[in-house]
Amino acid sequence: MSNDINETGGAGPSHRGVEIGVAVAIAGLAVIGIIGATRVGTGWSAEGPRAGFFPFYICVAILISCAVNLTQVLRTESDGAVFASWSQINKVLQVVIPTAVYVSIIPYSGIYVASALLIAGFMKILGRYGWSASIGVGLLVPLFTFVAFEKWFLVPLPKGPLENLLGY
Amino acid sequence: MEDIGNLFHGFAVVVQPYNLVLMVVGIVLGVIVGVLPGLGGANGVAILLPLTFSMSPTSAIIMLSCIYWGALFGGAITSILFNIPGEPWSVATTFDGYPMAQQGKAGEALTAAFTSSFVGALFAVIMITLVAPLVASFALRFGPPEIFSVYFLAFCSFVGLSKEPPFKTVASMMLGFALGAVGLDQMTGQLRLTFGFETLLTGFDFLIAVIGLFGIGEILLTMEEGLSFRGKAAKINLKVVIQTWKELPRYWMLYLRSCVIGCWMGISPAGATPASFMSYGIAKRISKRGFNFGKGEIEGVIAPETAAHAAGTAALLPMISLGVPGSPTAAVLLGGLLIWGLQPGPLLFTEQKDFVWGLIASMYMGNIVGLIVVLTCVPLFAAILRIPFSVIAPIILVLCAIGAYTVHNNTFDVVMMLVFGVVGYFMKKTNYPLAPMVLAIVLGDKAEESFRQSLLASQGGLSVFFSNALVSTIMTLGLIALFWPMIQSGLGRLRAGKKGVRVAE
With contacts defined as CB-CB under 8 Å, which chain A residues touch B391? Predict the structure, then answer.
């Protein structure tokens, strides 16, 4: 299996391992789907196919294709290709972790405060910008979105204690 | 003749000042979306879709389709100036566009690219104007089995035409169907696959999936590759434009061929990306200057751009006439129709004349406006790319989060978006195609409905899908498309066998 993205060198988890992991994960979802489908009935009732009829066969199809994909991966010898080098994975995590924090604090802080923190933090830590630039952009973008969404489009976005304090 | 009257009526709708403003806004946003890595046509439209909920459907589709045209135009800017394709369909444009920019001919390359995009789109729009009403009136006679067979054909073509391994395409597509099935069953009103989670009652919204898979997933990929943008200066003035335009008519044959390739690939769900590669490949083989391709040949810019735009536009033909989108972006637009309360499919042409012909007229107008906007504002758009990724990335993340939230005013959707983003990253890295998955989430309910209705009529026999000439033909075409990879290798082996050549295993 050729993969031209990963010729950057450096150690990392093997591409083969991730490939197997993805196939197993999809198969796992299919098993959950089959369980769910059998709960609502996969056969026929008086008014035709039951609710689980279509999802059941869809999930069976997923299982079959996952089996084929798995055997194909297992049959080929490991060529030593890495999925991504550790430094690349590190970079990806540098985005995933702040974003995970971001989406989990939105219900509590509101989207504007969370966005300001995300942008400023991202610029300061990953972009190595000075405090003034980071805080400046971090404040301007949420302010602009606030005006655009709350005033122009009249689409309310989640707000937190700060907005309440300001009377919104 | 009636259609021409309708078209003029459509133009009258489009040139209303409010719609014209939306058009320009759409184009500009679209180009920005096309230029920025991590934002593409599909998720750009998905993020902005919730803002149009309160607009009239016609105004909404004008703005959203213009974002699509803008994104198609925008991909070329980054390809030529930065050697970074902003969109997958502009990868082939980098082959000759960037070398031209290196030789100081960026202006010529950009003019050629934009003009070719325009020509390709115009050709496809004319084809849509002529063919779509016919297809729609023909499709009006379709019953559930025929409708299902069209879906079947569309999804099978994905398996046959996609360059990803067939079983990965199937897995990803079926996963989309399964996700689409979660929640309320349309026909029995029963809840399914929710496992008691209240948040799953409404199912997985495809807009969240699109924003996550394409938006967040793309940012993660860009982050991993550690892109740094070092671009060529964009100099474009009227003199260069006119000089290039004088040269272009010479390549009329190339244009015609690229347009036909584009339209053909666009109608089948293969889409713009393979169309651009195919057109480039054929142009390289046929052209007298084929040896010079890849070193900055203007024909190498014209061919992929014309085909990509023709394909991107032609992808809307099956969407408006049959309700089957030809590309992920068309799928998002189709999802928009459902949200605005319109029933996509052949009935649109009889019941929503204003809407359909407004959309078609906006394709003409949008591309003209688009050409003018990109020709005049290239330096501006190029400047956006000079903003470092560490500033752009969090802003795109914020935009994606806002887009995901506004779909249902639900913060849980924002969490789902991130989950889809990580899933998209892994799927993309392991060659699972994302487009069939998105299409399956959008069309899942309708495909299932037509499937179950057909089975109801036949009391469960699959023979209903071969009950008359029309449905059998479409189903057979679908089966051929499904098994195309096998048929192809079988034919190849046969041919090799005849010549007595041993095929190296």
Answer: 119, 123, 127, 129, 137
